[in-house]
Amino acid sequence: MHPQENIVKVATQLFAALGYDGTSTRQIADAAGLNIATVNYHVGGKRELYLTVMERAHTAERAALEASLARLSEADPVEAIHRLIDDYLDFCVEHPEVPALWMHRWLSDAGDLSDLERHYVRPLVDAVTRALEPAVTAGVIDPTVDVEMAMWSVIWCVHGFAKGGILDADGNRRGASDRAASRRFRTHLHQTVHRTLALPGTLP
Fold it and tell me: Is-annotated flag, keyword DNA-binding (predicted)?
């Protein structure tokens, strides 16, 4: 693996686990098996490295969402909406570092980098909301529903589950790798979205 790719991979893991503010360049260098000078040579300082990590996280998430949103105009809208939910959940489960990075942001991590949400999060939320507008116009989604807030609710729930899971009866944490917990959460998420948007018919 090229040193730059190794550094970005390691930095992604550390930023996701500790946040930007809790991660030092030395920690990144040590985890990558390099010295700080080599890290700076390949990727710049911690700020530049963090921006690279967040850019890559956004690019991966955008690609997953765009593929899913394209189906909204090609399939039954109710089925397409539920497929969108599945795709988003699958992405966050397969890439737990992405929700972890954004959850750190929710806790004011890297507070001096204030434009990330405007450049990365806002466009994706807007894209989903716009893609659902035809379903609102057609009466598939109840026009009284605040669609944007419903989408935020999905984001909060999915990120929370992908990062923290749920507690079982014995107080043990069951995350996305637990099949029973994952299946239970997925069912709940579909039920919640179906009812929140007041979609017609039964769950597909």
Answer: yes
- Mean pLDDT of the region 12-20: 97
Which fold would CATH assign to domain 55-196?
A: Tetracycline Repressor; domain 2 (1.10.357)
Q: How far is CA 149 from the centre of its chain?
A: 16
Q: CA-CA distance, 64 to 68, in Å (whole number)? A: 6
Tokens of 19: 């946040």
Query: With a threshold of 0.90, does the pTM exceed it?
Result: yes
What are the sequence ranges of the domains in the chain? 55-196
pLDDT given at position 1: 73
Q: DSSP letters along the chain, please? A: --HHHHHHHHHHHHHHHH-STT--HHHHHHHHT--HHHHHHHH-SHHHHHHHHHHHHHHHHHHHHHHHHHGGGTS-HHHHHHHHHHHHHHHHHH-THHHHHHHHHHTTTTTT-TTHIIIIIHHHHHHHHHHHHHHHHTTSS-TTS-HHHHHHHHHHHHHHHHHH-EE-TTS-EE-TT-HHHHHHHHHHHHHHHHHHTT-SSS--
The encoded tokens of residue 91 equal 């992405």
